[in-house]
Every structure is written in C-alpha cells, then in structure tokens.
Specification:
Oligomer: single chain
Number of helices: 6
Structural class: mainly alpha
Helix content: 55-70%
Length: 232
C-alpha cells in the first residue's frame, strides 16, 4: 500500500499497488492537520513529485474510462464524428499552454508547473457543474456518476498537491493563476437535448486530453530533475 499525501491539509490517500480499478482501491483517510504545509514539505522533493504524478495518472485513467462510458451510453454512433467539429471548442483552448514539442522542450520547470496549475484550476468548476447536469440525465449509470464525481474531487487534491510542490521546489510560496469564468461552458442554459449531451461529452473529452497533458508535463519535470543534462 502506497500512502499518497498531497493535500496541503495533510490528507493521506492509500492506493494499492495492484492493478485494480482505482475507484475500488482508493480510500481517503484523515490525518492530523497542523494547519500548514510543514507535514507535506517534510518529505523529499522527489517523493512528493512521484506522488503528485501518481495522482495525475489515476485522474487521467478514470477520466478516460468516464469519457468512453458516456460515449457508449449517450452518443449515437452516426454522431461520433461530430464530436471533433469546431462548434465544440475546448474551454482551455485560450490558455497559454505550450502544445508543440519544441515549445514544451524550451519552457522552464517553473512554467511546466504553472501550466499544470492553470489546467487544473480551469477544470475544477466545469467538472463540479457537470455533476449537476449528469444528475438530471435519465438512466445515467451510477458508475458514470461515481467516476466523474471521483475525478472532480481528486482534481482539487491535485491542485493542492501541485501548489505544495511549487512551494517546495521553487521556494516561491503559493503560485496562483487567473482565468476568466465567462470562458467556461455554462451548464445553466437549456439547449436542445442532443446538443446538451454533445456538449457534455465534449467537456469530458477535452478534460481527458488536458488530464493527459497534466500527467505528461509532470513526468517531463521528473525526467528533468533526474537527468538534467540529457533532456535537450
């Protein structure tokens, strides 16, 4: 059992090392909270980064499963190709996130962490709103609702873990980012049912892609930390 401690309030997440479904093996247990980052920063930088990466890996895996399940349940096969149309734009498209390989290789460790934090913070509210939307679906499988709820909760944990990592690695305290809430898809509107379903699916699909970016950026950061001279 691997204790994953990435919350700033010192929450421990116990994860089995066996390849079992994440939702079946993750239990959150309260630890004693001293009201500061002291307990989180007492472990080595390397261990902290490993734990944050593992958290990101689980989030990506479960989000991918959620997206596939949503598609199987609610998206008619003839409409699968429409999910890539420009009408359904990812909400993080306007963020200054590096995308090309050359851009990613050139940015600093600081900007890698900054990019992860921007992505995480941009998705917290949309995923919370998605929970309300899924609750209104007829015959929405409980597994889908549980998976998306789990991802939403763990994304908040990942945000806190990245902020602890920033404090420890860069010694700059809390790094915050700003994003425009108006750019986030609002679930309060009442479009035609199929359009609403397609938008929700696009939301899950876009988040899955961004979750993969978060994982990739964190793994690149780990690679740079362990072999700084061979990553050019």
């Amino acid at each position: 059992v691997l204790a994953v401690q990435i919350l700033s309030v010192s929450v421990c997440v116990c994860v089995s090392t066996n390849r079992v479904h994440p939702l079946a093996v993750i239990n959150v247990v309260s630890c004693r909270d001293d009201g500061s980052f002291s307990r989180s920063t007492s472990i080595s930088q390397e261990k902290l980064l490993e734990r944050v990466i593992h958290h990101a890996e689980l989030i990506y895996r479960v989000s991918e499963e959620s997206c596939t399940l949503f598609e199987e349940m609610f998206i008619p096969f003839p409409m699968h190709l429409q999910t890539n149309q420009a009408a359904y734009t990812c909400i993080t498209k306007t963020l200054p996130i590096p995308s090309s390989r050359s851009e990613i290789q050139q940015i600093s460790d600081k900007w890698l962490l900054h990019s992860v934090l921007m992505l995480v913070q941009s998705w917290i509210e949309p995923l919370i709103n998605l929970q309300t939307t899924l609750d209104r679906y007829d015959n929405a499988p409980e597994m889908l609702i549980n998976k998306t709820k789990w991802v939403s909760e763990k994304l908040i944990s990942l945000e806190q873990g990245v902020m602890v990592l920033i404090k420890k690695m860069l010694e700059e305290g809390m790094l915050t980012t700003d994003y425009n809430d108006e750019d986030v898809f609002q679930h309060g509107a009442q479009p035609e049912m199929m359009d609403s379903v397609m938008r929700d699916y696009n939301l899950l699909s876009c988040f899955t892609k961004d979750a993969h970016k978060m994982e990739a950026f964190l793994k690149l950061l780990k690679y740079r930390q362990t072999d700084k001279y061979n990553c050019a």
